[in-house]
């Protein structure tokens, strides 16, 4: 932790509290035991850590029945994505690899070293035989589901690459945008749902609600595309559909020009609207998950997405750099998202209200965004009403007077104040600790504390002498009036 981080958390001590609570109190529902795993599987989990630390954490806390299948599912799709993103692979070869990748997962010993040297996850494909070795041990029903999703995704990616190579923009219309997001993320939601249901850890009715499954993936993918606009543009990629951005600027690069800030913000709010329309269906989907680790696995990314959506909404910084929610905010979101559906709904309500608060009548999407926010709140209210008639009745006595506050609530308020006190003590302790370390380094570097002490002592003595001389002069002058002087 750097000095800037210490200063930040001194000001935002609630975020520091969230980090400490997550690190201290979070207990995984299930814990993976690497010691009982073969070497090949441990290598697979190492690649999972390298390719996505955030997803790796939630995957490794899954129920043992789904731990390995979902970890390998992620790595297989990451392999597909690595081939699609690599612009050094010739189109014909790339298309063949993408369309045949679902068959490759059954070829013992297969690996691929044809990626460019700068491709981030090329090592995964170089050692892909480890993934295949473990995948062949997975239950046939799970392999069938994963291969079917890989086949559909590979076909969709190949079609997109072909269009881009022919000079046609990959994403022109909103329909193109939805289809692209479906192939790279919506299909993932479909596959995961089948795995959840097949394992008996989710309501079988979810299998019939394909729209809900798809919305889970689209909500995440669309939010990430909005957040990553600057990073994608720097990499010469564009995923925002022409149908949307052309309403605000003539050329896509005009969004990044300072003189078009207002138009760019209106454009981004249009994109946020398309993502926000999936929010209520995501909550509906989460209600069908039975097992806690599966619920956590699905809920954390969705809660992070709504928090990110609130961050990017009408935020001009997205056109200047890649922005993310802070670590403290992320820990608080994770704490709230790993309890139950009601807490997740509260997270959604909180960030939807932030979006609504930032919404402005100057935005041409003002009314639609207000309706979308209201739709999410209405859904939450329908399953968790804020006005409980029985609770209101209990709060009033027979004479119609409000009863005294519950002692339990008073106690909770006292505990909250105690938490703040302990947080301040923790911050001061951290500062003292860092100060001691800095002084220690200075001492080891040869700092002369005796010289510094003598200099300070000399300066103090000189100051006292000057004050004494000045006081004497004023006493003498006071004996004479102005005429005598």
Description:
By secondary structure, the protein is an all-alpha fold. It contains 22 helices and no strands. The longest helix is centred in the last third of the chain and has 38 residues, at 407-444. The N and C termini lie far apart (66 Å).
Task: Give structural attributes.
single chain, 485 residues, mainly alpha, disordered C terminus
List the helices and strands and how they pair.
Layout (H helix, E strand, L loop, with lengths): L2 H9 L1 H13 L13 H13 L1 H7 L4 H22 L5 H14 L17 H5 L1 H8 L4 H26 L8 H25 L11 H18 L1 H6 L7 H4 L15 H16 L2 H8 L5 H21 L14 H11 L3 H18 L7 H18 L5 H6 L12 H38 L4 H29 L8
Helix pairs in contact: 1-2, 2-17, 2-21, 3-4, 3-5, 3-8, 5-8, 5-9, 5-10, 6-9, 9-10, 10-11, 11-14, 11-15, 11-16, 14-19, 16-17, 16-18, 18-19
In short, what is this structure?
The chain is mostly helical and 485 residues long. 69% of the residues lie in helices and 0% in strands. Helix 2 packs across helix 21.
- Amino-to-carboxy terminus distance: 66 Å
DSSP summary, beta strand count: 0
Largest sheet geometry? none
SSE order, one letter for each helix or strand: HHHHHHHHHHHHHHHHHHHHHH
The rounded Rg comes to 30 Å
* Unreliable residue runs: 395-402, 476-485
Estimate the strand proportion: under 5%
